[in-house]
Amino acid sequence: MPKKDSASRVIVALDLTDLNSARELLQKLKGVIGFYKIGFEFFTAHGWKAVELVREFGSKVFLDLKLHDIPTTVAKTAAVICDHEVDMFNVHALGGIEMMKKTRQAVDECTKKGKKKPMVLGVTILTSHNQDVLSKELGIARLLSEEVMALTRLVKSAGLDGVVCSPEETPALRKEFPSGFTLVTPGVRPGESSRDDQRRVMTPLCAIESGSDYLVIGRPIVQSPDPRKAAELIVSEINS
Ligand code: C5P
């Protein structure tokens, strides 16, 4: 994978519902951040308008809808997403290999028709889950780290481009997949900031050093009294 500059490795999670607030934030972060994640909140509030807004600022879009349904439904949805030419989107690895393979096929067919090729990621285990949630609540028998590795192997064998995982898991995943496989990590918290509802967290620099290609950062920037300064600090920490 080509080396990216530090600023392009930070993806800001636009977890907002108000279009004007999002526009203000994009304005504040202009020139510092060039990649934004649009998730459920923003997308269900404004649909493709949210995507267009990010593009108005010349920035890239990660559409974080974490698709998880029967294979045909997810593949058809993936084709619609491809038609809109986003830069990155994701499906849940727990949807299984057939669902992910069909997604890959749908994306490849769209690309053959001339649409931009998005990066397609599998979500492993949410960073708000820890071992207790996995075993006691969800009844998943494997250790969290083993479950993440098993799901990542599934994602890779389905031909997807990478995974969304916690930075705690990136060293092991990077060791098994040293190149050509993208690791995107939420659960990133600069030194002093609150963990919020995240349970498996790491600082930006540690996350990059442990093998993450892209960091997804929401509240530490979006809810900061000075989002531009918060973003600049994170970018310069990664640069160091
Ligand atoms: O505010 P915070 O930095 O915790 O935001 C993290 C973002 O990453 C949220 O938008 C959340 O939906 C997303 N995410 C996550 N864990 C995953 C996948 C996505 O926290 N495994």
Order of helices and strands: EHEHHEHEHEHHEHEHEHH
Bound ligands, named by name, code or SMILES: cytidine-5'-monophosphate
How do the strands of the widest beta sheet line up side by side? Answer: 1-2-3-4-5-6-7-8
CATH class: Alpha Beta
Q: What overall geometry do the principal axes of the alpha carbons give?
A: globular
How large is the count of helical segments?
11
Structural class: alpha/beta
User: How would you name the CATH homologous superfamily?
Assistant: Aldolase class I
Distance between the termini: 21 Å
Number of domains: 1
Mean pLDDT: 93
CATH topology: TIM Barrel
- How would you sum up the major sheet? 8 strands, parallel, barrel
Q: Which CATH architecture would you pick? A: Alpha-Beta Barrel
Helix content: 40-55%
Number of strands: 8
Kindly provide the radius of gyration, computed on alpha-carbon positions and rounded to a whole number of angstroms. 17 Å
Measured by DSSP, the beta-strand proportion falls in 15-25%
Q: Indicate the low-confidence ranges by residue numbers.
A: none
Provide structural commentary.
The radius of gyration is 17 Å and the shape is globular. It has one domain: Alpha-Beta Barrel (TIM Barrel), CATH 3.20.20. β1, α1 and β2 form a beta-alpha-beta unit. The relative contact order is 0.15. It has 11 helices and 8 strands. α2 (40-46) packs across α3 and α4 packs parallel to α5 (97-112). 45% of the residues lie in helices and 15% in strands. It binds cytidine-5'-monophosphate. Cytidine-5'-monophosphate binds at residues 13, 15, 39, 123, 126-127, 164, 186-187, 196, 198, 216-219.
